[in-house]
């Protein structure tokens, strides 16, 4: 069956590439042997026509997925025809040096999900067909470390497609300080991985401003909306810089905290000074910026804020909100 389908797709592609005028479904049905054998020539029974139309639409979509540009043309008498112009399906010569090919190979190996891996593999096959030198192996290992970007959140794939297609989305989002999730109406711009977590940047319609969302806090299903974007998409979406500023990466002052001995290694890595207090506690000076309170809450009872007072109050408020939820 797989061979039969491949042969049918090849014959359909050759017909569409070889014609100088658009061919109707009826003409394609009479010209391709696989269609004639399955459904007979010309118009048959209603069920036969319906089955052919479904198969033809699937075949057409498969060819487009493989990269064939198929045009739909309506004649003066209203009949729909199809063709694949050679100039629209001809790629210019592609020359890649070893480093560029290696970069493509690394990008293809980054994704662990089957669907993304298949898309990456298909893209490399198209480059081979377009002239990628056979003596360059983009899959060849160029280092001892092999990159991986884990994606565990179910929201990743629908959001990635929504960013690509510029489709607004709706999802339920739970803030760190909230006991229950709230619906968000977002125009998605870009996804980026930062410190092992995926973030979405986009325009929040309810708040009328740019927002960044952590995917692990999205609950339920991401729903697409058919409307177009209402806000302009910036030329450069600074997801990482925005998240970094929220996490205190751009801090211009310090906070004093007590940290349980043997705990909070990410905090210790950021500390500018560490002093042992005894009795199982250490004292740390760490950069203080917007979002530090949310980060400290993640360490629970292992952290006590000493100074400043407003940071201590923010952490206590967040812990109380979590306790109530």
Name some characteristics of this structure.
325 residues, alpha+beta, four-stranded antiparallel β-sheet
Word description of this protein:
The chain has 325 residues and is an alpha+beta fold. It contains eleven helices and eleven strands. It has helices at residues 2-18, 25-31, 33-39, 46-65, 98-110, 114-130, 156-165, 239-246, 265-270, 292-297, 309-324; strands at residues 71-74, 80-83, 169-173, 182-194, 197-204, 209-214, 218-224, 253-260, 273-278, 281-288, 303-307. The strands form three sheets. Strands 6-5-4-3-7 form a five-stranded antiparallel sheet.
SSE topology sketch:
Blueprint: H1 2-18, H2 25-31, H3 33-39, H4 46-65, E1 71-74, E2 80-83, H5 98-110, H6 114-130, H7 156-165, E3 169-173, E4 182-194, E5 197-204, E6 209-214, E7 218-224, H8 239-246, E8 253-260, H9 265-270, E9 273-278, E10 281-288, H10 292-297, E11 303-307, H11 309-324
Antiparallel strand pairs: 1-2, 3-4, 3-7, 4-5, 5-6, 8-10, 8-11, 9-10
Helix pairs in contact: 1-4, 2-3, 5-6
Number of helical stretches of at least 4 residues:
11
Rg over CA atoms:
28 Å
- Flag low-confidence runs: 141-145
Largest sheet: spatial strand order: 6-5-4-3-7
Number of strands: 11
What global shape is seen?
elongated
Straight-line distance between termini: 55 Å
Major beta sheet summary:
5 strands, antiparallel
Into which percent range does the helicity of residues fall? Answer: 25-40%
Q: Could you report the average pLDDT, rounded to the nearest whole number?
A: 79
Beta-strand fraction estimate: 15-25%
Order of helices and strands: HHHHEEHHHEEEEEHEHEEHEH
Structural class: alpha+beta
């Amino acid at each position: 069956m797989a061979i039969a389908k491949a042969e049918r797709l090849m014959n359909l592609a050759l017909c569409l590439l070889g014609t100088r005028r658009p061919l109707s479904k009826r003409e394609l049905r009479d010209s391709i042997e696989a269609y004639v054998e399955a459904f007979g020539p010309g118009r048959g029974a209603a069920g036969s026509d319906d089955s052919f139309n479904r198969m033809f639409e699937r075949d057409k979509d498969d060819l487009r997925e493989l990269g064939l540009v198929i045009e739909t043309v309506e004649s003066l008498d209203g009949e729909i025809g199809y063709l694949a112009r050679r100039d629209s399906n001809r790629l210019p010569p592609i020359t890649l040096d070893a480093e560029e090919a290696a970069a493509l190979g690394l990008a293809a190996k980054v994704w662990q999900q089957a669907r993304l891996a298949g898309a990456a593999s298909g893209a490399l096959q198209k480059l081979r067909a377009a002239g990628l030198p056979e003596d360059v192996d983009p899959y060849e290992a160029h280092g001892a470390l092999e990159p991986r970007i884990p994606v565990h959140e179910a929201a990743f794939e629908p959001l990635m497609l929504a960013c690509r297609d510029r489709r607004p989305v709706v999802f339920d989002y739970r803030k760190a300080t909230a006991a229950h999730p709230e619906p968000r109406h977002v125009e998605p711009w870009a996804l980026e991985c930062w410190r092992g977590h995926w973030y979405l940047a986009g325009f929040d319609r309810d708040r009328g401003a740019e927002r960044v969302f952590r995917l692990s806090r999205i609950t339920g299903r991401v729903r697409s909306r058919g409307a177009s974007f209402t806000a302009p998409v910036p030329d450069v979406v600074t997801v990482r810089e925005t998240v970094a500023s929220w996490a205190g990466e751009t801090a211009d002052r310090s906070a004093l905290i007590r940290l349980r001995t043997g705990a909070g290694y990410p905090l210790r890595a950021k500390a500018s000074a560490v002093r042992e207090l005894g009795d199982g506690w250490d004292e740390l000076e760490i950069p203080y910026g917007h979002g530090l309170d949310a980060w400290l809450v993640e360490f629970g009872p292992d952290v006590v804020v000493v100074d400043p007072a407003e940071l201590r109050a923010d952490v206590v408020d967040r812990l109380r909100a979590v306790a109530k939820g």
